[in-house]
Write a structure and sequence with these properties.
It is built from 8 helices and 17 strands. The protein is α+β, with helices and mostly antiparallel strands. Strand 1 and strand 2 form a beta hairpin.
Length: about 325
């Protein structure tokens, strides 16, 4: 990951140069994590740069913001246009995009009373989160000693800045012990998710994943993977998953905007299946990259083309579950 090629940032309605995109040290979000954000990917296609599922990402951004009392002063159409402007202004054909909204500077009590809502969109070139070769060879993961927080503690399906401290602890511990990534368990000891990824397992040619009752973020790539798998004729079951389910699986993989679809080859030195990328995972990867690169007519609905400002902006919700729930 490098910001070297990022020259322009959209900040509160204006394009500013990278080195001028600054906020005061007394910003509420800096001290308490009171912000929400999204991660999107833009892919190069034969018809130009296109953002994958921008409508669903912006839906989740606004839903997360409402949970934390952030009243965004821009419409979804305005933010969609800002995303496209950032990509074009920086000359990117493929990139990662980060819209972030947070409470700025006014007071530093816990309640951000009269703090302005700051809205920023920037982008950079970013390869797959766990490395390009991970898409083929898979990753080595470990069960984290840290537990994923429950929805009674904070809304697990909102994508809020401060909530990621839990993920940071998990991934730093995993990497310090020589693993690529972590997997967190929920408060009941069932599988939750990775620090920034949802989890799928494959057993007997059937695909399994969990849902918000397991304290996960309802991933947009997760949702796409479920639809792609069903299009390929696989049965996808959403249910609680245990560590034993993972260890006994034929295949396992992570999904996420940054990770895309990444095979898991090993858990705490124990191989998953034969320790290589499995057939089902490979098929899903091929279907996913065909979709994001504009090669699948059935999934063009997921692409927002950057150079077409007048294209309809259709809000397409997740296919099966709500974005945010609080408690059980």
């Amino acid at each position: 990951m490098s910001f070297d090629k990022t020259k322009w940032v959209w900040m509160n309605g204006e394009m500013v140069e990278w080195h001028q995109a600054n906020f005061h040290v007394s910003s509420h979000a800096l001290h308490y994590g009171t912000g929400v954000f999204e991660g999107m990917r833009c892919y190069e296609t034969d018809e130009g740069a296109a953002v994958f599922r921008m409508d669903a990402h912006l839906d989740r951004l606004y839903t997360s913001a409402s949970v934390y009392g952030l009243d965004l002063p821009y419409s979804q159409v305005e933010l969609a246009n800002a995303v496209c402007e950032v990509i074009e202004r920086n000359g990117f054909n493929s990139c990662y995009i980060r819209p972030i909204c947070f409470f700025g500077s006014n007071v530093l009590g816990l309640v951000p009373r009269n703090c302005p809502v700051e809205v920023v969109v920037f982008a950079w070139e970013w390869a797959p989160l766990l490395g390009q070769e991970s898409l083929e060879k898979g990753v080595r993961i470990t069960v984290s000693p840290w537990t994923k927080f429950h929805s009674r503690m904070m809304p697990t399906t909102a994508k809020a800045s401060g909530q990621y401290l839990n993920s940071i602890l998990a991934v730093r511990d995993a990497q310090a012990r020589g693993f690529d990534e972590a997997i967190l368990l929920d408060e009941k000891g069932n599988l939750a998710e990775g620090p920034g990824e949802n989890l799928f397992i494959v057993s007997d040619n059937k695909i399994f994943t969990n849902d918000e009752s397991s304290s996960i973020l309802m991933g947009i790539t997760r949702d796409a993977a479920i639809e792609l798998a069903e299009d390929l004729g696989y049965r996808v079951k959403v249910c609680k998953l245990t560590l034993n389910d993972l260890m006994a699986a034929d295949e396992a993989f992570f999904t996420g905007t940054a990770a895309e679809i990444t095979p898991i080859r090993e858990v705490d030195f124990n191989p998953i299946g034969d320790g290589t990328r499995g057939k089902v995972t490979h098929e899903l990867q091929q279907a996913f990259f065909a979709a994001v690169q504009g090669k699948s007519a059935a999934h063009r609905k997921w692409l927002h083309f950057v150079a077409r400002p007048n294209q309809p902006f259709l809000s397409e919700p997740l296919t099966s579950e709500a974005f945010v729930s609080v408690g059980d």
